[in-house]
Design a protein that fits this description.
Shape: globular
Distance between the termini: 47 Å
Order of helices and strands: EEEEEEEEEEEEEEEEEEEEEE
Number of domains: 1
């Protein structure tokens, strides 16, 4: 789809054919919704416009295809797949007009970068196929329940951000922490034991 998308209505990808958004000048401010069993691919950076919320229904597939996209919030249902595929996704910016939390109940995968900016992101389940770097910035809080919820990439905690691990059973982080800010915090809750499999020499955040 090469047409420019504008306005405050929602954009819905539906049907059994993959939809490719190719216009990097899109400026729509409503939700971008990928229906159940539908597939959406970004064909150029900015093709998600000023999406206020990216909504991924069950069994949907979204491929960033190496592009750079920004959304206000993410709501991903169980069974959905979000593949960064070498791209960069920023969640939680001025586009998040309702200050809405983000939830990932589906599968996160691929290389690239996941940026979380001044919002809360709840990540449920394992994401072993995610190798992207995760940057937690500003006042953001990322909540995980498993050591492999953020895959295997490098995690950076900046500013006053928090990574909060609510761990009921024993688990381990395979991620490496990049040099961050001493004002950021890693919080571990629950009765389980959390261990680090990688060298964390660069880790500077509070624990």
């Amino acid at each position: 789809m090469t047409a420019k998308l504008t306005g405050d209505g929602d954009v819905v990808a539906t049907g059994d054919q993959e939809i490719i958004l190719k216009n990097g000048n899109n400026s729509h401010t409503g939700k971008t919704i990928v229906d159940a069993n539908a597939a959406l691919k970004t064909g150029s950076s900015g093709s998600l416009g000023a999406t206020s919320e990216l909504v991924l229904q069950a069994n949907s597939n979204t491929d960033l295809n190496g592009q750079q996209e920004t959304v206000g919030a993410l709501t991903a249902a169980a069974g959905s797949v979000l593949d960064l595929n070498g791209g960069a996704l920023t969640i939680g910016t001025v586009q998040n007009t309702g200050n809405k939390d983000s939830y990932s109940n589906g599968s996160l995968k691929g290389s690239g970068t996941l940026n979380v900016e001044d919002t809360n992101l709840y990540v449920y389940g394992a994401n072993n196929d995610l190798s992207a770097a995760v940057n937690n910035n500003g006042t953001s809080q990322i909540f995980v329940e498993q050591g492999d919820s953020l895959g295997t990439g490098v995690i950076s905690l900046s500013d006053t951000s928090k990574l909060i691990a609510n761990i009921a059973g024993d688990t381990s982080f395979t991620n490496t922490f990049a040099t961050g800010d001493a004002t950021a915090t890693l919080v571990k809750n629950g009765s389980g034991t959390l261990t680090f499999d990688a060298d964390q020499a660069a880790y500077e955040a509070k624990t």
